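WARN retry 2 of 3 for item q-0093 after timeout on previous attempt; input resubmitted unchanged.
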Amino acid sequence: MPLRVSVATESWPIAGTFTISRGAKTEARVVVASLTDGTRTGRGECVPYPRYGESVESVLAAIERAAPAVAAGCGRAGLADVLPAGAARNALDCALIDLDAKQQGVPAHALLGLPAPKPLVTAYTISLAAPDVMARAAAASAQRPLLKVKLGGPEDRDRIAAVRRAAPAATLIVDANEGWTVADLADNLAACAEADVRLVEQPLPAGDDAALARVPHPVPVCADESVHDRATLAALRDRYDAVNIKLDKTGGLDEALAVAAEARRLGFDIMVGCMVSTSLAIAPAVLLAQGARFVDLDGPLLLVGDRPHGLTYDGSILHPATSVLWG
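OK item q-0093 returned
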């Protein structure tokens, strides 16, 4: 029986405002693909990202264009021939994994030949704001072991110092979201080193990151916007120390696992990240994040509420999904 493919959009309010160097938002708009064989249903969630030329409308259209091939049985192995890496392929890849696992009566990790997932420590994000506002947010979360601090403005030295004072025991990672320049790179990296930051994500725009090969890294530097699928890795070896792998960039869990394996072969540390999303998008990433150096899967924690049967967070401890949610 051919698969039936359906797709829907959802809006999930964010608790407060999520702000990075490129702007702010108060809701997460996600796209959910559902595949059914008449008895079982698999689901996958993605987050269209304007930075990569995506919109909710374009992702919906891409999934609808791919639906006949998916319904006819192209399977996960054939998705790359139907869709490029990105959010649309992610939703369909994760929905196919969910459906395959249900059809075979095994958990997703077993389907993929992976060990059973264990709980993980995830970062918790402090949004970009004035230094005193970020300090108050950090103080409210100072008991969390890992904080991700959004930077990307002229007061970044003051911001990171204020956060460190407010959360003296927390491990800090920084995400500039392409918000620094070559001119301020060395000074900002030095400020991060002074604050004992352990990782700096994407300090320079992806098209301007060649300078990272010439500037010392007193703190390890991680590619985010500069890395997507396996084809983008090799050019980054002299620029970055780590790569942030996200399913919405790679086009799903299958390619993300391949990216992680190739990144490790090339000597990169691994970070696994996410967009602001519900637990349905995060559940597959939990499998990818096993063994990662840094885990940033706090998307549901940033929402007012999560979907039914969502992931369990015990503070910053993230527990794997049950098959009722995914996989």
